[in-house]
TrEMBL record:
Its cofactor is [4Fe-4S] cluster; Mg(2+). It is an enzyme of class 2 (transferase). The gene is purF. Its EC number is 2.4.2.14. It comes from Ruminococcus gauvreauii. Residues 19-245 form the Glutamine amidotransferase type-2 domain. [4Fe-4S] cluster binds at C263, C409, C458, C461. Pfam families: GATase_7. The lineage of its organism: Bacteria, Bacillati, Bacillota, Clostridia, Eubacteriales. Pathway: Purine metabolism; IMP biosynthesis via de novo pathway; N(1)-(5-phospho-D-ribosyl)glycinamide from 5-phospho-alpha-D-ribose 1-diphosphate: step 1/2. This is Amidophosphoribosyltransferase.
Amino acid sequence: MRGMIHEQTEVTDKLREECGVFGIYDLSGSDVASSIYYGLFALQHRGQESCGIAVSDTNGPKGKVSSCKGMGLVNEVFLPGSLDDLHGDIGVGHVRYSTAGASTRENAQPLVLNYIKGTLALAHNGNLINALELRKELEYTGAIFQTTIDSEVIAYHIARERVNTATVQEAVGNAMKKMKGAYSLIVMSPRKLIGARDPYGFKPLCIGRRDNAYMITSETCALETLGAEFVRDVEPGEIVTITKDGITSDTSMCLSRDEQARCVFEYIYFSRPDSHIDGVSVYGSRIKAGRFLAMDSPVKADLVVGVPESGNAAALGFSMESGIPYGTAFVKNGYVGRTFIKPKQSSRESSVRVKLNVLKEAVCGKRVVMIDDSIVRGTTSGRIVSMLKEAGATEVHMRVSSPPFLWPCYFGTDVPAREQLIACNRSIDEIRQIIGADSLAYLGLDRLSGIAEGLPICTGCFNGRYPMDPPAEDIRGEYER
Ligand code: SF4
């Protein structure tokens, strides 16, 4: 017998962010490990494969770092008691999903490096496009790598520069001059916490404060979780250094505003809707995307629904602009952790769609506008459209709050090679037929600037115009080969 929940589907056709970073220095000397834990918990959407925390005591023996990292979600890696041995007033944490480098424990971050000047711990979000050259440069001088991630290349270059510089922040600056690509970094030295953002500003990074504790993190939602106040964003190209004397800033690497290129997908999908990036509300930009879709691609319908979670705000925006009622059509099971046993192809459960259920009563007999943030390979969209139709929707009109993906991303997002992208070499109508929708429309490329409120953005995966020359060959994952 079928109840209210009609059918289920597994949501797999989603892009994934590479990482989230969190650093803190409590100048009053209190332990920071639990704050990092809660900060990482708030950033869990940015990476679910591995996570870690490294802390140090600025008043203790110089260079002693305690760390804990492992595979899995924050609440799988850190069990009750895990933080008990992590003492220190300065620390850094990381959540990871791999787009370059295998998903293994060795590749989990933060990376902790012992070298002639002491210890460095590093957490990195982004992807370098010249990591292979930088790695070879070090290997030819005898360096032996323990991981296959570009973050270790960055850490080694900082350590090497540090030998010839007066301060660790200068070493970070010198290393940045060699690095090409996307990076938001947090570096912990024995007495300093340093945050650095690549000159294009691909990935977000911001500063917060709670009493005497300063924080640097990927998203403002982590600050709110900790009851910290937002101080400001780290500027693209800026290096901020937090010491017991406060914050200093080096902006010598900053580019002109026009040259900056934030990843617009942070607004469309990656970041949490309650975050603000460079002064722009993520929720607000998704509402706008929905409004633009309603203006540019209107349709007669009875109900607007979002594919949870990231399609919901755009669906609300579509409803506000069009006057078509907004509703809930899906119930999502959010408890699918890393250890979830996926159904085998051969078993009866292979067709059981585990993550998403349709509310039959909500859609039966209705013309439905369904909003999703993107279509990558198209596998999931087709399944969701057919679920709505099986539940009785008379028409399903799909609206997508981003333009079609036509090119891969080299900057830390797993937009795959062109041949895997459904929009590559297909017309919109051909895609519509494949997914089985009654109509299909994407957000126009010319609308992206509007959803980021005029901030300079990267649009490379939509039009192939990257802010810097992409690598001649796709080297993502090259270290394993
Ligand atoms: S290519 Fe696309 S996903 Fe990659 S940084 Fe640019 S906008 Fe973001």
